[in-house]
Amino acid sequence: MKLLIINGPNLNMLGIREPDIYGSQNYAALCDFVAAAASEVGAEFEIFQSNHEGVLVDKIQEAYGKVDGIVINPAAYTHTSVAIADALSAVAIPTVEVHLSDVMKRESFRHHSFVAPVAKKTYMGLGFEGYRRAIRFLCLGEA
Ligand code: CA2
After folding, report:
1. Which of 17, 33, 97, 122 is the least buried, fewest Cβ under 10 Å from its Cβ?
2. High-pLDDT (> 70) share of the chain, %
3. Where does ligand 1 bind, in terms of residues with CB under 6 Å?
4. Partners of 123 in beta bridges
5. pLDDT above 90 for 117
6. pLDDT tens per residue across span 57-77
């Protein structure tokens, strides 16, 4: 099983500010956490972060025919990007959406996700654990 883990804008800034919302661990710790979660289920993975919408679209397109599952935290693009949703729809790779925070308990502009309709599942408000749950859902079918 080959997984692509995609993180959107500003997630590389984790741990620098807003620890009450996103936790105090940094992006390197998230990468380590994902590596451990993938190892638990014997999955190969690549983790990728970009602040640029088109770069994220390119990465999703490059996964076509090469990757069995995508875990994506599109960050702010969740709420704005038809392009990312269309790319996920185009490649038709099983996708799980993850958010560190519970976006439904935050500002109303975070309540809508363009990605949710093309994702098999969304985990939110679980911090890093959401990525582990997403990996296990894709690899083992665990809810
Ligand atoms: O809860 C999530 O995982 C989000 O996808 C994170 C995004 C936000 O725009 C979404 O609404 C929910 C923000 C990514 C990181 O933002 C930071 C802000 C300050 C300090 C560090 C990271």
Report:
1. 17
2. 100
3. 10-11, 13-14, 16-18, 22, 73, 75-76, 78, 99-101, 103, 110
4. 98
5. yes
6. 999 999 999 999 999 999 999
Residue recorded with tokens 């451990």:
36
Contacts of residues 110-118 at CB distance under 8 Å and 24 or more positions apart, as own/partner, are 110/78, 110/79, 112/79, 113/78, 113/79, 114/78, 114/79, 114/80, 114/81, 114/82, 114/84, 114/85, 115/72, 115/74, 115/78, 115/81, 115/84, 115/85, 115/88, 117/85, 118/85, 118/88, 118/89
Taking the whole predicted model, whether its pTM rises above 0.70 is answered as yes
Q: Is 99 a catalytic residue?
A: yes
22 part of the active site: yes
Say how many CA atoms lie within 13 Å of 105 toward its Cβ: 8
CA of 1 to the centre of ligand 1 (A): 28
For residue 30, the model assigns a pLDDT of: 98
pLDDT tens, residue by residue, 25-49: 999 999 999 999 999 999 999 999 9
